[in-house]
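Our preliminary data section would be incomplete without showing what the modeling component actually yields. Below, a chain of 505 amino acids is followed by its predicted structure, encoded as tokens that our downstream tools consume directly.
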Amino acid sequence: MTTKQTKTDVVLIGAGVMSATLGSLIKELQPDWDVHVFEKLDSAAQESSNEWNNAGTGHSALCELNYTTELDDGSISIDKAVDVNEQFQVSRQYWSYLVKKERLRHPESFIRPIPHISFVQGEDGVAFLRKRYESLLFNPLFKDMHFSTDHEELNDWFPLMMNGRDKSEAVAATKIDYGTDINFGDLTRQLMSDLETQKSSVQYGQSVDDLYQNPDGTWNVNVRDTVSGRQKTYRARFVFIGAGGGSLHLLQKTGIKEAKRIGGFPVSGLFMVCKNQEVIEQHHAKVYGKAKVGAPPMSVPHLDTRYMNGKKALLFGPYAGFSPKFLKQGSYLDLLTSVNPDNVFTMLAAGAKEMPLTKYLIQQILLNKEQRMKELREFIPDAQSDDWKLVTAGQRVQVIKDTEEGGKGTLQFGTEVVSAADGSVAALLGASPGASTAVSVMLDVLERCFPERMADWEPKIKEMIPSYGKELMAHPDLFDKVFQETADILKLKEESSHQTVSNQK
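Predicted structure:
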């Protein structure tokens, strides 16, 4: 039986990095607002934000080749790379502010310096990487990038990958020393714990089953305790749906017109995890390659040094898998129940257009361990099967919608905010770069949903994020300043080779 309504200013659905970031920003900008967080599981960051379900690269496009595309004329477009890097710098600034204010108390547990490397094979790959390097070389956001085709130099960068490699093989790599490894699970848990100290209500084991808008523009949010089954209704002025793969269903329940003709396609990720500590210690970098033809951008292969609970780990992947679930702990009916009269033709159009993706997923699902090891050996020629085990990572739900550029049923690769015209509700859909750009994305939510308050909030935002409203690429001195300051505060500077000088060939 539903109890009486509880009034609140803000409801955040999901205890992942997006809700945690938005809640943190709101309490900084409007500390008197009442904030309620509801999470279906029993603790924060158990799905997409979890360290085992998230790449943790600190996506800044330093090494991710899918953010720099080769155009028909042979030139390299760096627009996406610059945009992602700009957004990551915003996140760094905000995290630094919270550390300085002792709102985040242990930066070393969620962010570490580590080289970011791009790696390619074959003459065509080498030519592409050289052009990419030359396109980024003098951009202030990509300072001190080094390019090499020399096997001996590459052996210094990643000996594990060069041992046993044919010396005649054409390979190349770029390296930037000031990349980062980020444990977004730890970061999320710290943010959520801080929210609780800011007189916010963070409740676990609470499933949001329905929500609907009242005539006055507020939202009734129906919440069910997953153990007792007791239900309660919260009446909120603003609702954010940050439930990862669960966001699409809740967005559809809102009935807002902006949610129509949007679908989702789930892709699961699997990683090979190294069990041999001697092998793990031979590699210290995040090395990204090129996605195979037909593979989604989120399936870019990478050999990843990670730190989980302070312990060094080594992962390779992701191998794509398929499950109709939208969350690891979701339902096998998720995909089917997400199709409705509003989006069925969009979904059918996507199915017809994405045959290469379907073929790729089928091929990936049918791989056995030795076939997966063959892909791993393109990175580590001497990899031994007994040293590696397969681990299932998180579920990602790619957005499908109608666009002017791609037409009906276009599969989107990225992070997307959907918000109502009146600003009373917003949802986050999509995947990578996701967590790395959380602060920029949540500032976008605030700008969309609270435009009348932005002028009053702007001085505080600029205190938290000195570059707010500016492109760091166009202000290299400001970039150098905030980069060095954040490196100091986040305890990255000692191991970072970033210098405040222009690139040199």
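The radius of gyration is 23 Å. The chain has one domain: 6-457. Preliminary results of this kind motivate Aim 1 of the renewal.
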